[in-house]
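User: I'm new to structure prediction. If I give you an amino acid sequence, what do you actually give back? Let's try with this one:
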Amino acid sequence: MSSIRLYRIVKTFLQYGLDDLVPKHAQPWYAKLARLHLFWLRNQHKDKPVAQRFRLAIESLGPVFIKFGQMLSTRRDLLPDDFANELALLQDQVTAFDGEHAKAMIISAIGEDVFEQYFTDFDSTALASASIAQVHTATLLNHGEQGESRQVVIKVLRPKISKIILADLKVMSLFANLVTYLFPDGKRLRPKEVVAEYRRTILDELDLNREAANAIQLKRNFSQGKPSDKVLYVPEIYSEYSHKNVLVMERIYGIGVGEVEQLTELGVDMKLLAERGVEVFFTQVFRDSFFHADMHPGNVFVDATNPADPTWIAIDCGIVGTLNREDKRYLAENFVAFFNRDYRKVAQLHVDSGWVPSDTSVDEFEFAIRTVCEPIFNKPLAEISFGQVLVNLFNTARRFNMEVQPQLVLLQKTLLYIEGLGRQLYPQLDLWQTAKPFLEDWVKEQMGVKAVFTKIKDNIPFWNEKLPEIPDLVYDYLKAGKQSHENHGELIKQMTAQQNKQSQRLIYSVLAGASFVTTSILMTDQQQGFAIVTGVIATIFALLALRK
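Assistant: Good question. You get back a string of structure tokens that encode the predicted 3D arrangement of the chain. For your 548 residues, that looks like this:
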């Protein structure tokens, strides 16, 4: 199956003429020769611009490639405008499948009786269509205590999508193995681990029950009454009607975050909106350790009801990321050190965490990091060449054998999305100065005196519960210690006695051997009387050596 899929990928690229993206002078002779022999795979779309051909090829290859295109669409600093504009269409304008087929799948999942009783005004024309699923509008009847009607959207997975994804994952695993064994940097980049992590996340996205649970969790995290919680809204999930391939949720009426002209016309405070995007990201990562990891423009909207106080709206929570305590602390300290331009600490943190070998020269590593990062500070996003920064960071990683950390792949991807959105909304945004105060406060809370008292306060209920058990636990420990000491002493006595016996056996064996030798000599010298005596003595020593 993977070989068939690989052939289809190559076939698609060639039939859309994507080999034109590689300059002729940069193609090796064997690549040109191979292209000539594949005469039946000519460019069939010469009438279309190359950017459109690139988008159509990616779209035709399915969800894995579409998601790759979605990420690229946010990187306008790396792509020409025509490519970025074409790839932006992949965010929510992928070709939809038949609406009546979608309706039949929904009825099959939730039951015909339930559908007819609680749902009406189902629109068979998809409201939006993405790589893995599409959504249709409907009205939910008799919901809640008041029996109100709610405007909802019903998300349904594309038919047979799992087979396509599994085939693509096999191809990706094949390429990962080739990269690992054929390229010098293959093992350091850990492509097999990265593909395994991506496999887990994309297969999770095929379970809409999981997405429902993620959305409920994210909504609860930002509904705690704190001022920072007003910056993000997550639509309500109607989980009683949701299944593995069908999800029912509240319909929202926001403006796509990529509709910059419309947001500007409405007078939205773009600087505040961009800053709140950064706040949303860092709050999810460092406060909650639970972050939306698929925040491309197709999944993010803006509530511009009050243009001076805009709110972000997040949908499609199929992919989320989590960080453990060690990862959070390490990342926060690194970010703060970067913001303070303390490259020495950044280098030392990398060594201490094991991300680079322990024998790495901290001085050389510090200098290399300074060379890469210093030019990006005190500049707005529009003036920062992140493409060049990424190249320099890659060279630094290769030089110091820094390994890719698969558990942070989702975080890195989300950072790319946030950065791309920030560039679109407010190019003058200083990302570093916006995030620095947030991270400094978080580090103080986690590592300062306040953190100690907070940990004690959090543990007091547990300690109160265990306090009555402490005397019994101490008694049992001391008793066990005494018994262990007695057993240890008895064991030493036994070992000593055994050693003494072995020593005695060795001595008796030596004496018996000497006596037998003496007996043999005396018998040779015809001194039989003495020989009999020594023989008896040798026998006695031998018996003593053999006794238990």
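You can read the tokens as a compact description of the fold. Here is one thing that stands out. The chain has 22 helices and eleven strands.
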